[in-house]
Here is the input.
Amino acid sequence: MLIAGNWKMNTDLPSARALAAGVRESAADAEGVEVLVCPPFVLLDGVYQILQGSNVKVGGQTLHPEDEGAFTGEVSAQMLRSVGCSHVIVGHSERRALFGETDEDVHARVRQALDNDLVPVLCVGETLDQRRGGTQQKVVAEQLEKALEGAELASGSDIVVAYEPVWAIGTGETATPEQAQSMHAFARKWLKDRFTDELAADICILYGGSMKPHNAEELLSQDDVDGGLIGGASLKASDFGAIIEHAVHLAG
Here is the structure.
């Protein structure tokens, strides 16, 4: 099970270091659960200094598909690796909606991450209109297919998939446990068809839609929910720690 925190564009260096210290303490005895935090780029080194030597991993929030070059404001895979990152979020709904990232862009970023020994946390999910139209499975299948086209995985730990119902991000709405399980099971079957049963069984599929301490245990207890990609609740060490506790309880 993996509990990942996406800090988005929040915190400054002092508050990020304090938050990282709190997460380190919360995760100290998190047996059977991986913990990951993804701070803003400029805070990665400072956060890594706090977390180095602990069982909490650090990741980036996106990356550029090229190794280097004249791309002002962008961040490369090697830059992320050099400040201790093991993971990187790819294709988050906010990147798609606010910054125009296409399925082709997401594919290029997934390949770049894999080529540079970073684990991509590949985000997929439908909008409210798509769910109302009954096309959510079609949307997720297309996103998975385009993002993973040509990808060869040595093991299930090479990639993480995060299902984020876009209609449940930052709205206070949450998919029911049954809705989450249904989409996670669909994604798992897609991965089995694309790779192998064994590899797909080992891929962590995270739920990424407003998971909080009060609903975490019910969501995490679903058969195909292997963890959470946490937004708002990851910005408070006590809330994030409570979600980790739920995961530890279920993993035990």
The first strand starts at residue 2 and ends at 6. The CA atoms of residues 44 and 83 lie 7 Å apart.
